[in-house]
Write a structure and sequence with these properties.
globular; 5% strand
Length: 172
């Protein structure tokens, strides 16, 4: 049963849990992916919430909000030029502070994985030229972002998943 009336749902011991971010936080805690202490966990939450807003707060609305192709292209350009710079600057400060291939601490957290997954989703959903612009403007110019994305991608479990995954369902 969809406790929130929508997907996704995670059922644990017969108890449903809804909302993707709540599920992500739960799984991260269960798997030890929230950092060394409660402050690290809060920083992970801050990073994932910021990252979530970057993609789901804006991109999904642009792509699937019923805009014409011209309106969509203009909205994506505005997103890249006006919305992304301050959001990415926040994440850049956090990534640079650690500058070791992780947003938080010295090991993989769900913040790193979520950041990677959002860029993965952008590469799959945005027009290629727009994604390339974002990548060039924000990721490739940042050694810290590049390290984080490479760290996640090279994790053995994640690398195996990426190698074997089916293409995602788009416009389902």
């Amino acid at each position: 049963m969809a406790i929130t009336g929508a997907l996704p749902i995670l059922e644990v011991d017969g108890r449903p849990l809804g909302q993707s971010m709540a599920i992500g936080r739960f799984v991260a805690r269960e798997l030890g992916l929230t950092g060394a202490d409660s402050f690290d966990a809060a920083v992970c939450d801050m990073i994932t919430d910021t990252t979530n807003e970057i993609f789901f707060g804006k991109v999904v609305a642009i792509l699937y909000g019923g805009l014409s192709e011209e309106e969509q292209a203009a909205a994506i350009d505005k997103y890249i030029e006006e919305f992304l710079p301050p959001q990415m600057a926040i994440l850049q400060k956090l990534a640079d502070k650690n500058s070791n291939g992780y947003f938080v601490g010295k090991s993989l957290t769900w913040a790193d994985i979520y950041f990677f997954s959002v860029f993965d989703q952008m590469s799959l959903n945005l027009p290629a030229d727009k994604y390339d612009t974002i990548k060039e403007k924000f990721v490739l110019k940042s050694e810290s972002f590049t390290k984080i994305l490479e760290t996640v991608k090279s994790n053995p479990g994640i690398a195996k998943y990426l190698e074997n995954r089916s293409p995602p369902v788009v416009n389902a």
